[in-house]
Design a protein that fits this description.
340 residues, alpha+beta, 8-stranded mixed sheet
Length: 340
């Protein structure tokens, strides 16, 4: 099982594709339109985004935007056995909203997902070998996707994705600040190719609850993009005027104190300076300090403070998600939402 495409419904598809191309370094792969909707395809050899906006009120995108701000409408997957997935869908009583026709090159079906999102499931050959790394492509795929759900829905959503797609819980987080909190489960597919995280608020003033209020229900909060050179990638994106969440200076002082205390983290002086200058988060495990998790988060990408992108580097194949980075991200979003 693999991620096939992320489909966005947005107010202005032309502007969105321009930002993804000029600021994030993705490629414009073409566009198509009909009497009511325009769609752009953006990505590279490792990932694909579809971005649609309405041309008039009869567009299904216009109907969606009456209820929700711009964001992710569909997360589609490729599977090797669509018939097996369909049997699970029918057994679980999940609604099928559309199916392929004889004119389609590959068979597919689309189901109602959690909240307003949908999942298109396509039968297609799965890649056996990883694509060779193109030095001109800084974004190498989707690392993980994060879904925000309402209070009381975390366990239900986790079971839903487990029963349908066999996603298993890899980590659980309980993040609390002086203002609010969340509980999160990090899921992973049995093949290890898909990471899908689910957040639930633990207070009425949680930034997860703020997302749910503005989004008018559950939805995709952010998508993390993989890179193998985050310092170079973010420096280039900032040169192209992509804006990121600011991180308090105290975070980096505490980080260096931790590194000195443990005496086992290998990072050059130049990298320490770049880390703080570019506002990148870093975490590692005491038992495997060479496996470094490096992350950074954009400011909200659309007209509402809901969806954003993350860029992540898993140095030396770092696994999972760092508690320290998660806490820092949650606090940074709180501070940003308070400031706007």
């Amino acid at each position: 099982m693999e991620i096939d495409c992320i489909h966005f419904y947005v107010v202005d598809a032309t502007q969105t594709q321009d930002l993804l191309v000029t600021q994030m370094g993705l490629q414009n792969l073409g566009n198509r339109s009909n009497e009511h909707t325009i769609e752009y395809l953006v990505g590279n050899s490792h990932l694909l985004f579809s971005i649609s906006s309405p041309l008039n009120g009869s567009s299904p995108v216009a109907e969606y935007l009456k209820l929700h701000p711009s964001g992710v409408k569909d997360v589609s997957f490729r599977v090797s056995d669509l018939a097996e997935i369909k049997r699970k869908i029918e057994r679980l009583g999940i609604e099928i909203v559309a199916v392929s026709s004889e004119l389609d090159r590959l068979p597919w079906l689309r189901i109602r997902g959690w909240g307003a999102i949908e999942h298109t499931i396509i039968q297609a050959p799965l890649e056996q070998l990883a694509d060779p790394i193109d030095p001109h492509q800084r974004i190498l795929g989707i690392d993980h996707i994060v879904l925000n759900v309402a209070v009381g829905e975390l366990e239900l959503a986790t079971l839903w994705y487990r029963d349908l797609f066999d996603f298993q819980v890899q980590q659980t987080f309980d993040i609390q600040t002086q203002k609010s909190g969340l509980v999160s489960k990090a899921l992973i597919s049995s093949c290890g190719k898909i990471r899908f995280n689910i957040n639930e608020p633990t207070s009425v003033n949680s930034q997860i609850q703020e997302f749910l209020d503005i989004n008018r229900g559950a939805g995709i909060q952010h998508i993390a993009l993989q890179t193998n050179s985050i310092l170079e990638t973010i420096e280039r994106m900032q040169q192209q005027h992509l804006t990121f969440l600011p991180i308090p200076q105290t975070y980096y002082a505490n980080l260096q104190n931790r590194a000195r205390t443990e005496q086992n983290l290998i990072l050059t002086n130049d990298e320490w300076q770049q880390l703080e200058q570019l506002q990148i988060l870093m975490d590692w495990s005491i038992s495997t300090p060479e496996e470094i998790l490096l992350q950074i988060f954009t400011q909200p990408f659309f007209e509402s403070p809901t969806f954003f992108f993350e860029v992540i580097e898993r140095r030396n194949r770092a696994k999972g998600f760092g508690q320290g980075n998660f806490q820092a991200l949650f606090e940074a979003i709180e501070q940003y939402n308070t400031a706007i």
